[in-house]
Every structure is written in structure tokens, then in C-alpha cells.
Predict the structure.
Amino acid sequence: MFDRIIHFSLHHRLLVVALAAFAVVYGGYVLATLPVDVFPDLNRPTVTLLTEAEGLAPEEVETLVTLPIETTVNGATGVRRVRSSSGIGLSVVWVEFDWGVDIYDARQIVSEKLQQVRSQLPRGITPFMAPISSIMGEIMLIGMTSDPAKVDSLDLRSLEEWDVRRRLLAIPGISQVTVIGGNLKEYQILASPHKLHFYEVSLKEVEQAIREASANSTGGFLLSDYTESLIRNIGRVQSVDDIANTVLVEQPGSPFPLMIGDVAEVRVGGPLNKRGDAGINAHPGVILSVQKQPGADTVELTRKIEAELARLQASFPESVTIHSHIFRQSEFIERSIENVRQALLDGSLLVVVVLFIFLMNFRTTAITLTAIPLSLLISFMVFKWFGLSINTMTLGGLAVAIGELVDD
């Protein structure tokens, strides 16, 4: 067979040269677009279930929450293993599927099983699926600090929670952004027992009024002169005064209703009691932990995050500073890839020297050196067809393959 290939190539030199040129051009394009990572995704398809059970001890979480979820998903189609962890007010269940199961099919199977387990859980406790994340997990840590005299920790946390986090989640390839540290703002409604007794109002009525306070409603529409006008009741709470002026109950014999502010003090309180904190260079701050989706290019994704952070920094107060170099996995990847690339170059140079010394023929040496880059570029084309990425393992395999190629 090899004799026929050689015979065909010698009689169709232009075709062989054209195919080699196509391999160089297309292979170079594929190389520039392949995703770059530290390691390939070696995990089985896994669905993570998170359940918050506020106030429950780990033993109660395991008995009332974790065990029913484990029992329900354990017999699902394609499930290979189920692991769990129960902590204070939190249950985490990992559902692993067989190799080859599509992650979206796995999430659909788990979602159907969760519908069966909801009735077995305590009231108000609902499990939910965590986003699809890569095996490498955390790819970047972003910090924010400010001058406390201009922007306090409450406003800094709100800025990162509602502005930065949402802008980063809009970038394709990011699966989750977790906010760590800072102080959470809290709206406190401190009911007075004496006023509740005086106005003959229960605490349950206050809770119900607060729960129903912040909502817009519709009243249909009006038709006038071929014009349709919507009727809306704007009841969304915008400030502390809006909460205080919320109607609690109608007072018999009085033209004015009883407001929440008449029986309670409404204020912006906080911060909430913290179970952890964050600091940057020995100063208080807020940190964002960024996790990526499987298959996303970590290096390219980091560049997009940097560009988005630059746009955000321009819109923030001058006293707010973004620290984007606390931890970046892309730097480790770039160094690792550069080390392997340097090893490939050094090996190629040694191959040139050794071949010429042993063969003492420029033509034979040139033929061998032509085969090396062509083989590499064709390998990258195979990477693309099989959905592989450029990482330390695949590049290490290519380095070994070059030695085998020269030996052949």
C-alpha cells in the first residue's frame, strides 16, 4: 500500500503540493482558533444540586433534605454515582453519569426527578441545579476596594453584586460569579409590641403587608378614540419611605388607613452578621470568584473579562478600584504553553542537527523537516474534529509524537 501511495505522489506532484499548502493554511487557522486550557475535561458528566435549608443543623439537613434527594436521583437513567455533603443550612448533592451522556440530557433527567422529591422536603425548601462549570473551576479572582469615606462597604458590595456580577455573567463562557466579602445591605422593619397592641394588629398581618407591598398590578385597559391605554398600579418599593407608607389595615371610623410606619420603625440597617470576609493587600474589600463553562477558552475568556472590567472602571467613582490580577489561571496556562512550545522548538533544532550529522544530505533533512510541521498542523485539524483543546497533556503528547515521527 505504501508503494502505491509513493507512486501516486511522484506522478501527481502538483496535487500533493496543493494538499500540503491547504493543510498549512487551514491547519494554521485551526491552531489560532482552538481553545486553550491547562488540562482537558476529565470529569464524568456531573449535575450539582444545591439546597438551602436555613436554620437546620447538619444532622437535620442530611436526614430531611440530602437523604430524600439522594434516594430519588440514585435510580435515574445513566446515573453512575451519587455523592453528597451536608453542612449548616446547606445540602450539596453531586450526581455523576456514565461517560458519553450529554450534560444537557443529564440535567433534564435530574430535573424530572426533582419534581418527585419536592413533596418530601420541608416546606419552603427547594433544591436547584448549579450552573454547568468546568473541571478547572475558578479561573479568576477579581477584587474591588474603595475609600471608606466616599464609598462604604455596603455600597461597594451592592455595586459588585448588582453591577459587576451581572455584566460578567453576560459574557459567553462564564458559568457562575460568586461574590465574597463586604457588607450586605439590610432593610429592617422593627415592629413595636406596644403599638401593635394599641392598634390591635398582629405581627402576621405586618409580615403579610410587607410581603405584598412591592408589586405592580394591572387594571386592564381603556379604549378612547381608537387609542388603547393601559391601566397600571405602580406599587414597586423604591425607598424606605415607600415601605413605611405601605397600607397595613383600614381603620374603622377613620378616614386614614393604618401604615406600617405607624407601628414599626423602617430603616436601612446592617451589615448582616458575617460568616466570612475578604481582604485585598491587607485592606477590606470585595472579591468576585469567576468560574467558566466546559470547553471555553480560558485565555480568550480572561481577555474579554479584562475588557469588560475596563469599561466598568470608567463608569465607577474615582475612589473605587478594580484589582484584576489577584489570581488569573490564564497566566499559568500561558506560561505552561510557552514552556512546552519552547521544548518543541528546542527539540526541532536538535532534530535538524542530528539528522544532518547522520545523513549528511540537505535534501533528506529538508524532507524530514517538512513532514514535522505538516504532521503537527494536521494533528490540530484532528483536534478540532474531535473537540479537543490545546493543553499541557495534548502538547506533551505532540512532543513525544515528534520524536516518533523522526524515528520513523
Remarks:
- The first helix runs from residue 2 to 11.
- The chain has a mean pLDDT of 84.
- The radius of gyration is 31 Å.
